Amino acid sequence: MYTKNKLLGFLNAMERVKDGEEKIFYDISSKQNMSRMFERKEMGFDELKNLFYSWEKAVSEAERFLLNPSGILCSPDYIYYEVTSGCPEWIFYPGVNEEIYPSGLTLLAEYLLEKVDHRDTRAVDIAYRFYRSAKEGRFLLPEMVKALDEALVQSKEYVPKEEPELITTEPDAIILDEEVVEKENDFLDMIGRFFRFGKTSRKENKSKRKKESVRTGAESIQRTANLPQWSKAEEDETECRRTRLLGEENGTIKRELKNIATKERYSLKNLPVVIGKLEGSVDICLDDDSVSRLHARFFEQDGEIFLEDLNSTNGCSVNEIPLENNEKVQISPGDRILIGETEFIFN
Q1: Distance of CA 34 to the CA centre of its chain
Q2: How much helix, strand and coil, in percent to the nearest 5, is found in the chain?
Q3: Residue 52: closest CA among 156, 159, 167, 140
Q4: Which residue of 83, 128, 159, 225 has the fewest CB atoms within a 10 Å radius of its CB?
Q5: How confident is the model at residue 100 (pLDDT cuts 50, 70, 90)?
Q6: Cβ distance 161 to 57 under 8 Å?
């Protein structure tokens, strides 16, 4: 039922038979999950309002198609956002039942309590109410929506259920291959036995690869349509209009990226570091139309430095070897790294 209908507010899904098994694939083109969207910023009242209102609409939409709302995944890793609109999109997975559902609520409640902007008293109140009700096993979504409505009335911002409007997009990806979701906690382990996303190479010739990529998670996807380029007209007011350098301390940089063309240097001292053009959500903000809003991430694991493509439009490469969407690869000093059309050297 889910894969045969277009549900408003949900990721597009499709069924495929692979290795004799029927699996569900989800289209995450041009989207980022909640964990990545808010890796570098806090969640205020407006973000929480957007989340719970869209969740309420998703539940109504699921019920309209006679689907059990417990199948709506509410882990931060599985709530996806349109980067441009900031609108959440949900995953419905029929393998989730009422016994697993509370674990997902707890994961989300703990995440929101950690990420909430503690200067925003309304946001703190909502996050704490959600956390307490989830922990005590008495969470009811209508009560959270009612609390949000009351907070809006008190601040004279109430608009009767006209916002946020759920936005859906036609898929620009056809998912052909599989990769298993691997999560440590029990809830995501159970989901992981069923989840698959596709993957594809940006080049057919992979014999040139000099490094063994490290893959964790299940968010690689394939795009078969011509990839759109971001234009100046598409950029909103929050995006940077010039390149900014963040994180440099007293001119001493132990790990850095050097822009080969401009000679600008960017510190990688305090990892993880996100690079893109969405100001306020990235650590290195580039004024480059070929760079996605959240393009790539540098992080440390077991003492080594890795580059991760964040489902970018125009991709990344290391030493002329392209990364797949959401691929992670170890980098070494002297490596030449291409972010969109901007080339760096890692030192």
Answers
A1: 5
A2: 25, 20, 55
A3: 140
A4: 159
A5: low
A6: no
- Sign of torsion, CA 317 323 326 328? negative
Residues making up the chain, counted from first to last: 347
What tokens appear for 67 in the block? 């689907």
Q: List phi, psi (to 5°) of 15.
A: -100, 140
- The pLDDT of 102-124, averaged and rounded, is 91
Across the chain, the runs of DSSP E, i.e. the strands, are 13-18, 21-26, 31-33, 80-82, 88-89, 195-196, 213-214, 256-259, 265-267, 273-276, 284-285, 296-301, 304-309, 316-318, 321-322, 328-331, 336-339, 342-346
Give the Cα-Cα-Cα angle 346, 267, 246 (nearest 5 degrees). 135
Best CA proximity match to 311, nearest among 195, 207, 173: 173
- 103: which residues sit within 8 A by CB, 6+ positions away? 185, 186, 187
pLDDT at 96: 66
Please state, in angstroms and rounded to a whole number, the distance separating the CA atoms of residues 78 and 141: 18
264-285 mean pLDDT: 90
How many CA within 13 A on the CB side of residue 222?
15
Structure tokens at 173: 């990806």
Eight-class DSSP state of 140: -
The C-alpha atoms of residue 332 and residue 335 are separated, in whole angstroms, by 6
Q: Provide the pLDDT confidence category of residue 296 given band limits of 50, 70 and 90.
A: very high
DSSP-assigned letters across all residues of 41-53 = S-B-HHHHHHHHH
Range 235-272 burial, b when 16+ CB lie within 10 A, else e: beeebbeebeeeeeeeeebebbbbbeeeebbbbbeebe
pTM: 0.60
Q: How confident is the model at residue 126 (pLDDT cuts 50, 70, 90)?
A: very high
